[in-house]
Specification:
10 helices, TetR/AcrR family transcriptional regulator, transcription regulation, about 75% helix, DNA-binding, globular
């Protein structure tokens, strides 16, 4: 018995939906950006070659040029993309952090960021791109623009609990500064235990500072 037209139609393999031009463009751009970050981590800025990034991404030189005309265009876009992922992560972690000791949760996020591939790549960019002050300035601008929403995510959580915003901003700025110093100390072989003690002391002092404007409970008469 022959199959009905409906059965024959059902038996045909589903036709693969064609991607739109925008979807193809986004996918190709993403491959180039991922390849750029991988090569920057492996080789640094000075040994980075845009042709190698295109080859690693499986993109023709013409396709690469269509998306990113120069080496610095590609690197700048790659750094910006990874910074955005850090912003998204900070907002998620701050939103999910418990209300107890938010500064310690924020410190853990900062510590992870300072140990991340993104931070390593950014430092390398600023050091190696010294001959191109304009490009170095662009990396600094991206970093500063991304850091603001990262800080705001944690500062907003502190203010939700009643902390004065100016105090929350000051506390988080100081926390960032101390942890950057600790990060450098660890990189040059400092004592991890000693730096952990400094961080604990910093968080305790900042928590005391944030509570300093709380009204004291009235003394019973």
């Amino acid at each position: 018995m022959s199959a009905s037209p409906d059965q024959r139609a059902a038996d045909k393999p589903a036709r693969r939906k064609r991607r739109t031009q925008e979807e193809r463009r986004t996918e190709t751009s993403g491959r180039l950006l991922d390849a750029a970050i991988e090569l920057l981590l492996e080789r640094g800025y000075s040994r980075f070659r845009i042709a190698d990034a295109a080859k690693l991404a499986g993109v023709s030189r013409g396709g690469q040029t269509h998306h990113f005309a120069t080496k610095n265009d590609l690197i700048e876009a790659a750094i910006e993309r990874v910074f955005q992922s850090e912003v998204d992560l900070a907002e998620s972690e701050a939103g999910n952090a418990g209300t107890e000791d938010l500064l310690r949760h924020g410190a853990a996020h900062i510590d992870a960021f300072l140990a991340s591939d993104l931070y390593k790549v950014s430092l390398n960019m600023l050091i190696s791109a010294g001959e191109s002050e304009h490009f170095a300035d662009r990396i600094r601008t991206i970093s500063a623009r991304s850091r603001k929403p990262i800080e705001s995510a944690w500062i907003d959580r502190l203010t939700e609990g009643g902390t004065d915003r100016k105090k929350a901003e000051d506390a988080f700025w100081l926390l960032w500064s101390v942890q950057r110093g600790i990060s450098v100390q660890r990189r040059i072989g400092g004592d991890p235990g000693g730096t952990d003690d400094i961080l604990d002391l910093t968080i305790d002092l900042l928590n005391g500072y944030l509570r300093s404007d709380e009204k004291a409970a009235p003394v019973p008469q």
